[in-house]
Amino acid sequence: YYLTYANFTVEDNDKITKNLKLPQTPADGCLIEWTTDKPSVISASGSVTRPAVGAEPETVTVSAKVSLNGVEKTKEFTFTVLPELSAQQKLEEAMAAITYDVLTAEQPTELTQNLTLPSVGLYDIGITWASIHPEIISEKGSVKRPDETTDVKMTATFNCGGVIEEKEFDFTVILSCLSMAKKDADAVVIENASAL
Q: Least buried of 33, 77, 121, 177, by fewest C-beta within 10 Å?
């Protein structure tokens, strides 16, 4: 029975943060018995308990004893479990994950469509939004194109257990089609008047 790191996790084996998937039932006629040298960090069932915030990473050896027809073979796997993140670290990761590409498929300097403003980020961190021109871009992300092309600053406030950080996004909302057509018509009138 073949066992590789890819069977247990999609994470790098030296950067473990989530539970492992250790096969507990017979496969291909083999029986598998799991043991670990630090069961308080990685249990024999694969449950992971990360070290506390500020602690050092823990290196754990997990052993699989595979038996078939009375023949036994043991294979060892080494994992490093990362410590829990502080609220500030979680905030920083959550903030970095919210980019212009998340908010819109358009260029932020040529905005015409509604934004997608998430209310929850990584680690279930709450996000609230504020706009300096809510009549143009609302706090829900709805865009109402103005009579004149307008710059709008959106502020995302991230709250992780009372630790708060803000991140700003700048957009330029293009004037409405009606206003654009009116400007074009006015320009034609002025041009014609100048030709007289």
A: 177
